[in-house]
């Protein structure tokens, strides 16, 4: 069964503009648009075609149609603010806890009380007040060139300031939310002053000015442009599974190291969602969230985008499992958002652009 509506904010086509204008009409118009049955409307920053199977699975199980508007998280937050009480959006779905925190700060999210969600999602992967819930986990790890680095040379994020890595570290910009959340977690662990000193030392070891996404960093490590990179594991898993021989060769040249295994554990971020205060379909929205933490949906998440399930006992994708088991940092993900503004200021002062 195909989705009835999937549109992309900012795509620039006339068809997209029409579809989005329909979705942002007052609530009576929205009801007319969706008159064929119950619906749930997602504003999603997850741009993965594999998620369609999740939506179709939910629709088949519940009879509730899923409509999706996709854009970057900040665009969606601004759109929801602009639509106000007339917004047709039921759920904001994002790929970082920091974005959920921003939506929380804009007073867009409504607390959800659900025993299903509270039992399925570990406490550190959901908002303390029930404003949002993690749906998947992402591990931010050290990717290393296997010909030039031994895992015994690696230990912690903090140790990446060691002089032996001078000119050898690759990373994307500090304006990327993944890096802001990593630095935010270090503020929580080590304090702002020590974290700023760490960022300065980290920057001194850069192989080049930050550029590109996580995939670009992994490819640069494989090409010998640096020995180490910071990246989320699912980017490497995509290269392993790629039909491209070039991508597979890249993956064969690099390894994964999980930092801080002797202390707090490897930094974990989430992809998550929260119900909007203005949601016209709150019951369906909560039902959608509860379905997303079912074993069936968690398996689709794991296999479709190579992410870690938030629900204990769900099997991890085999490629991701081959990266190894590891200890996770169980700092509540809400702290990343709280610390993100300070993290970005620290990065700016320390020269991580």
Tell me the layout of helices and strands:
Blueprint: E1 5-8, H1 14-23, H2 27-33, E2 39-44, H3 51-62, E3 65-70, H4 73-83, E4 91-94, H5 97-105, H6 115-120, E5 133-145, E6 169-170, H7 177-190, H8 192-204, H9 214-222, E7 228-232, H10 233-241, H11 245-252, E8 254-257, E9 268-275, H12 282-292, H13 295-305, E10 308-309, H14 318-321, H15 334-350
Parallel strand pairs: 1-3, 2-3, 2-4, 6-7
Antiparallel strand pairs: 4-9, 5-7, 5-8, 5-9, 5-10
Helix pairs in contact: 3-13, 5-15, 7-8, 7-15, 8-15, 10-11
Write structural notes for this entry.
This protein is an alpha/beta fold and 353 residues long. It has 2 domains: 180 residues, D-Maltodextrin-Binding Protein, domain 2 (3-Layer(aba) Sandwich), CATH 3.40.190; 155 residues, D-Maltodextrin-Binding Protein, domain 2 (3-Layer(aba) Sandwich), CATH 3.40.190. The protein is built from 15 helices and 10 strands. Strands 1, 2, 3, 4, 5, 6, 7, 8, 9 and 10 form a 10-stranded mixed beta sheet that branches.
